[in-house]
Amino acid sequence: MGNALRLLYGHCCKPTTTESDSLGPHGVSAATVGVSALARDLFHFENTAQVPVGLNQHVVSSKKAQANWYRKLVESWREARPPPKTAEEAARLVIKTLKNHQKADVEGLLAFYGLPLPQTLVQLSTGVPTSLPQGVQYEFQTLPVDAKAVADGDTVTVYVSTADPRESSNVPTEVQAAIIQREKAREKRNYAKADELHKKIIDAGYRVLQFQNEDVLARKYRIRLRGIDAPESKMPYGKESKDELVKLLQGKCLRVLVYGTDRYGRCVGDIYSNGIFAQEVMLKKGCAWHYTAYDQRPELAKWEREAQMKRVGLWASSNPEKPWEWRKDRREGR
After folding, report:
1. What's this model's pTM, rounded to 2 decimal places?
2. Which residues are catalytic?
């Protein structure tokens, strides 16, 4: 069993004393049904080869077929980088893994865990490009994204390891010196000095982060998602838009295609999270506008129209205020 499954089971699937009277068919409470329940059952299956009690009430295939599903799901979960953390991610993994199985079985399995059914998920059409699109200046892979790094529905701060060939030759001399001095201070347990040196590193646009139990020097980038404009935090639907981007990016190592820099020094780019195009999700879920003043891609306009027709997200309002007009009104003191 991979560490990801074991850790998720350990943290999420231990019923507390207050839960003991309300356990569901998977041996967990309603509070932990979903991703954690699926992780628990996969962990249990790999150790016992037993499928959950009660699953027969939700699916049509035999116990032998069910065991085959769980073997496939264990393998898919182990290979996922990172493993599913949200109900939507878990549902997509189940649907993809069991795509050749009966629809009734797939939907029954999802219902058993309280996961979203296929018809409720946004259908994604865009994958990671096989070659760099025209206009891309450079690309990079980030370290895992922290939820606090998401400012709103269209802006996120990321860190890129200086082990990346593009970064390694560009680390300023003063940062390299501060890294060496900080390590010496830590060896001498002079943590005040080490913190002082780390602040110097941070002020230069870098940070020492823990990644896979090692200290990693990383460069900071602020990313503005190209082609969309999300509600500002104080606008209606601002919180929901930010929460959706957090759900999409948190804990993921992103692929970022950078097209340029805006007037605030942010990289303007396309973001791919586990192969999912972030802008497509934000537009299709009604979490952002197509920013036509800066991006004329027809697919973005199409995804926005789909959300408008379905009246999802911010389009549930009859006349949602555009963020660029909201910002203009604030600048002019209206």
Report:
1. 0.82
2. 224, 232, 266
